[in-house]
UniProtKB/TrEMBL annotation:
Residues 10-144 form the VOC domain. The keyword Ubl conjugation does not apply. Pfam families: Glyoxalase. InterPro entries: Glyas_Bleomycin-R_OHBP_Dase, Glyas_Fos-R_dOase_dom, MMCE/EMCE_epimerase, VOC_core. This is VOC family protein.
Length: 145
């Protein structure tokens, strides 16, 4: 084995590319129950915003525990996420308990948002609930069993 190049302590942030910032922002606000910590979505129609890193490319950043989850609105309209291409497969968010997963499933039902079943992954010690975001990015809510 080669010498370790870096010793990561965790993830600083995850950012996904979306087609429609207003639709995605509304979805994640509802999912997380909070507004973004940083929001440049109202500037999305300004010239040059999609290249402006300082203004998050016209996107938003949500606080998720001690990490950050961002949306970058630069994908062409109509493009859909494909987990079978190189890159992101899914994003998994930890919740406090299996009971929270069941409560989340009930709230997703009440909101009319399609989702998978609460599923015990057996020996992994994890229970998950999957939901697709508006661009079909698979989100997984996960709890220790």
């Amino acid at each position: 084995m080669s010498e370790q190049i870096v010793k990561p302590l965790g993830l600083a942030h995850v950012r996904v590319t979306v087609t429609d910032i207003h639709r995605s922002k509304a979805f994640y606000e509802q999912l997380f129950g909070t507004a973004p910590a940083m929001d440049f979505s109202e500037h999305i129609d300004e010239p040059g915003i999609s290249e402006d890193r300082e203004r998050l490319y016209g996107g938003v950043i949500f606080p998720v525990g001690e990490q950050l989850f961002g949306l970058r609105p630069v994908a062409p309209s109509g493009q859909r996420f494909d987990p079978d291409t190189v890159g992101l497969d899914h994003v998994s968010f930890v919740v406090g308990s299996v009971d929270e997963l069941h409560a989340a499933a009930e709230r997703l039902d009440a909101a009319g948002i399609e989702h998978g079943e609460v599923t015990d992954l057996g020996e992994s010690g994890m229970v998950i609930l999957s939901v697709q975001d508006p661009d079909d990015i698979n989100l997984e809510l996960a709890a220790q069993n």
